[in-house]
Design goal:
mainly alpha
Length: 167
């Protein structure tokens, strides 16, 4: 028996054993293997479909995100414009109110000054007339007699002095 050329009996038994092993594999092994390969193929196809759906879903989410971002920016602009308009209205209203109050205060101050001026003039007139009467009385007592005509003359002078306008 040579290693390079086998005997006929050895070849026969090898063919028989190969046939039995092939039959057993064909009957029990290949269906299990093909079933596992088919399951693996289906799993890969399902995974690819799921990945495709996830990619499409992600694109939709990105599109929605971009739209929401644009809406948010426009809303932000609108809110800022409204806030600016409201600020301007408030400032305008405050200016008008301040001007109105300033005009009222100025008018009130003018009236108060006028009243004080009139009061001071009245007081000065009263003082001047009192002083005039006192001076005239002292002068006339020295030089004139105290007759009723002279007293009425003095009273008339005092009244004219108190009614005379002071500028």
């Amino acid at each position: 028996m040579s290693l390079v050329t086998p005997d006929i009996g050895l070849v026969f038994w090898m063919v028989v054993i190969f046939g039995v092993v092939f039959f057993l594999l064909a009957k029990f092994g290949f269906p299990v293997i093909t079933k596992a390969v088919r399951k693996r193929t289906e799993h890969i196809e399902d995974s690819l479909k799921a990945a495709q759906q996830a990619r499409l879903s992600l694109e939709q989410v990105e599109l929605q995100s971009a739209q929401m971002l644009e809406q948010t920016r426009s809303e932000q602009g609108r809110i800022l414009q409204e806030a600016s308009r409201t600020r301007e209205e408030i400032l305008s209203s405050a200016r008008e109110q301040a001007q109105t109050e300033a005009a009222e205060i100025l008018c009130s101050a003018r009236e108060e000054i006028k009243a004080e001026k009139e009061s001071a003039l009245q007081e000065i007139r009263s003082e001047v007339s009192s002083l005039s009467v006192a001076v005239a009385e002292k002068i006339l007592r020295k030089e004139l007699d105290s007759t009723p005509e002279q007293i009425s003359l003095l009273e008339r002078f005092a009244e004219e002095a108190s009614n005379a306008p002071i500028s």
